[in-house]
Amino acid sequence: MKTIVAMPGDGIGKTVLPEAIKVLSAVNFNAEYIHADIGWDFWCKEGNALPQRTIDLLEKHKIGLFGAITSKPKDAAAKELDPSLQGKGYVYFSPIVSLRQLFNLDICIRPCKSFKGNPLNFIRRSDSSFEEPLVDAVIFRQNTEGLYSGVEWTNPPKAVRDAFETHPKMKSFKNVPSEDLAISTRIVTRNACRRILREAFEYAKKFGYSNVTICEKPNVLRETSGMMFNEGKLIAKEYPNIQLWDTNIDAQMMWLTKNPEIYGVIVAENMFGDIISDGFAGLIGGLGFACSANIGKDVAIFEPTHGSAPKYQELNPSIVNPMAMILSACMMLDHLGENEKAEKIRKAIAQVIEEGKVKTYDMLKLKGGPDVFSKGACTTQQMTDEIIRKIK
Ligand code: NAI
Ligand code: MG
């Protein structure tokens, strides 16, 4: 039996995670789930959104299912801290970003595959009518470094400024006072490039994708994008049956709506991967469908890409779409070698969508609120029940 660390977190994370567990039980996945504390309540009560006891559980059991958390800006976060903790130097930090760094979950996988019949699928004008290209892109986002490595300053200390001044291009900023200068760095390591590229090519090989696209900007970001691209060319030689493509992030956003169906596996640095995966997610139905995996050498955490949707957390019954969470649980099954069970769930979801009888509010393109049921939307739980009915 597997032990899964279940971290519902905040808002609708608390709603959708139990739904995914119901579906996992329906395919007889043999597991016990240990609840772990994470998120806003623990920030407010303990000054720590990621308590050590949660880290310990993940260290021990290695596999986590995560719902979503609520984050607020620094000042707002400080105000909500328990009065007994205020002014004691506690600083809010996003617990999911912390988890990615702490366990070096450097491989982020975000599959964006359209389900036939999804009313939210992207459509494109063809000669005389419309066509619906089926998208099947899997984004491999480097998850720990790049522009999100967190090495940044406003008013950089003198030593930092001096070091930067050694670069000829800093001449243009010579007369800017340090207090008017903000610097965020884009740090890329060869090792991390190799890891994400290797995983991407292996995935393409395993699941039969004919191309891997490196989506960067090496003509401008010569050093960092350049390193990713050069490593990509080397690794690609080991996979003669898979084509290596490269696109620039800006052009890729344009091609997103021109020919999204031609892309298979896509590799990108942290921020570019963030952007491109949201772009592709929009073509296949948006946040209600977007699943992801964060994978490190030891630990792996599976989560929908949506957040805690506080607007909807109080609605009872709940209106949100559980599919993104359930599809993330399928990625966990794949990771654990339970591919048949994962496929069974994905097939059931595909059937529910294609039949089109049961739809959450997002699938009906409704504005969220308690009135969506009277307009034909199902509840979160009804959607799960329908998926389970198809499994049985
Ligand atoms: P969000 O993803 O929580 O919600 C944005 C909108 O997307 C919602 O209002 C809703 O219309 C729709 N949506 C989200 N999930 C849905 C679902 N399962 N079914 C149907 N519709 C869905 O993003 P937002 O509102 O920008 O952020 C809310 C909070 O979540 C913030 O505190 C933010 O920091 C946090 N957040 C956490 C993430 C995480 O835990 N990984 C990721 C993104 C945001
Ligand atoms: Mg994002």
Key features of this structure:
single chain; 392 residues; alpha/beta; Isopropylmalate Dehydrogenase; Rossmann fold; 3 domains; ten-stranded mixed β-sheet; two-stranded antiparallel ribbon; 13 helices; 18% strand; globular; binds 1,4-dihydronicotinamide adenine dinucleotide; binds magnesium ion
Structure in words:
This protein is α/β, with parallel strands linked by helices. It has helices spanning 13-26, 40-46, 52-61, 74-80, 95-102, 158-165, 190-207, 224-236, 249-255, 270-283, 323-335, 339-355, 380-391; strands at 2-9, 31-35, 63-68, 107-113, 124-125, 130-131, 136-142, 152-154, 182-184, 211-216, 243-248, 265-268, 291-295, 300-304. The chain folds into 3 domains: 1-108 and 294-392, 3-Layer(aba) Sandwich (Isopropylmalate Dehydrogenase), CATH 3.40.718; 122-146 and 188-283, Rossmann fold (3-Layer(aba) Sandwich), CATH 3.40.50; 151-184, no CATH class. It is globular. The mean pLDDT is 96. The structure holds 1,4-dihydronicotinamide adenine dinucleotide and magnesium ion. Magnesium ion is lined by residues 274, 278.
Counting helices, strands and paired strands, the structural category is alpha/beta
Number of domains: 3
- Major sheet details: 10 strands, mixed
Strand arrangement, major sheet: 2-1-3-14-13-4-7-12-10-11
Q: Give the C-alpha Rg.
A: 22 Å
Write the layout of secondary structure elements.
Layout: E1 2-9, H1 13-26, E2 31-35, H2 40-46, H3 52-61, E3 63-68, H4 74-80, H5 95-102, E4 107-113, E5 124-125, E6 130-131, E7 136-142, E8 152-154, H6 158-165, E9 182-184, H7 190-207, E10 211-216, H8 224-236, E11 243-248, H9 249-255, E12 265-268, H10 270-283, E13 291-295, E14 300-304, H11 323-335, H12 339-355, H13 380-391
Parallel strand pairs: 1-2, 1-3, 3-14, 7-12, 10-11, 10-12
Antiparallel strand pairs: 4-7, 4-13, 5-6, 8-9, 13-14
Helix pairs in contact: 1-11, 1-13, 7-8, 11-12, 12-13
